[in-house]
Amino acid sequence: MALHHALPSAGSCAEPASPSAQTPQQPADGGPRSPSAGAIVRSDPTEYFDSLVGPIALYPDALIALILPASTEPSEVANAAAYLAQYGDMSKSAYQPWDPSVRALAHYSVIIAWMDESRDWSEALGSAFVASPAEVMGAIQRMRARAVASGLLVSTPQQRVATAQGAIFILPARPGSIYVPLYDAAVVFDVHAGYLGGSKLIDFSPAYSADFWLSYVSDWQRQKIWICPSTTFDIYGVLYNPGADFARRNGAKPWLPSANARNLTGSRRPSGAGRAPNPAPVRGAPSQSDSHKK
């Protein structure tokens, strides 16, 4: 399995990475222990964070950049889920009084519904991201590295997997469309996932639109999220080249938690011990038994 090793050459909302910026590497013993069907007792912060981010680690970068901020606003995610359940479309989402990240993420109904159904996990993710954004984003990269090593994370007709400056990027495979990967983290990150069917354990949603609302950017080098002006939207160039000095010239700003998010998560900061909540698999995710049917 070969990865692409070059990203588009157009500008990016992310600032250029400094020479000292490094992405955390996979542990020498082969990575974090796999989640089981139930919550796993964690003995250190690394394993806690790895388990917590497993359910989204294989999502495209553009969706990660919305999910992390949106998870810090659980009540607004619940409102968006209720709105979608009642009206079924987001034609008027721009007029809803939600956080901009939630308004954008509501274009992907399968994610909003899943996050609302998995509130313990969503709130734990939001709490962790407010308290320790670098640890959360570093854990996503560790889990991606593990999936690449096992042959699980590969380029497909729905996504392109690329590496640059020590980070693993997951990009849309074609303009105008983005897909939500459907998988059960308790299965795909199992130590025996390669024997259970590898990439057959991941399916994809129907194509969703990729448009101007994808203006949040995952900056893996600095381990932060940037918010870009919607006028800079370009899913292949503007959003994904970490080497261009685009932020200062085009008005991008770093994401910061709202006062509401800080208040909600202040009492839920991860201790690095105990159990990371495990959400139910997103709807449509293949099961272990499905890997033998394809």
Key descriptive features of the protein:
11 strands, 3-stranded antiparallel β-sheet, 294 residues, alpha+beta, single chain
Structure commentary:
The chain has 11 helices and 11 strands. The protein is of the alpha+beta class. Strands 8-9-10 form a 3-stranded antiparallel β-sheet. Strands 1-11 form a two-stranded antiparallel sheet. Helix 6 crosses helix 11 (259-265). The chain is globular and about 45 Å long. The model is unreliable at 18-43 and 237-244 (pLDDT under 50).
Q: In which range does the helix fraction lie? A: 25-40%
Strand order of the largest sheet: 8-9-10
Shape descriptor? globular
Order of secondary-structure elements: EHHHHHHHEEEEHHEEEEHEHE
Number of helices in the DSSP assignment = 11
Structural class: alpha+beta
Q: Whole-Å distance between the termini?
A: 20 Å
Q: In terms of per-residue confidence, which ranges show pLDDT below 50 for 5 or more consecutive residues?
A: 18-43, 237-244
Task: Explain the layout of strands and helices.
Blueprint: E1 41-42, H1 45-53, H2 61-71, H3 74-87, H4 100-105, H5 109-117, H6 119-131, H7 133-149, E2 159-164, E3 167-172, E4 177-178, E5 181-182, H8 185-188, H9 193-196, E6 203-204, E7 208-209, E8 216-219, E9 224-227, H10 247-250, E10 253-254, H11 259-265, E11 274-275
Helix pairs in contact: 1-7, 2-6, 3-5, 6-7, 6-11
Give a brief outline of the structure.
By secondary structure, this protein is α+β, with helices and mostly antiparallel strands.
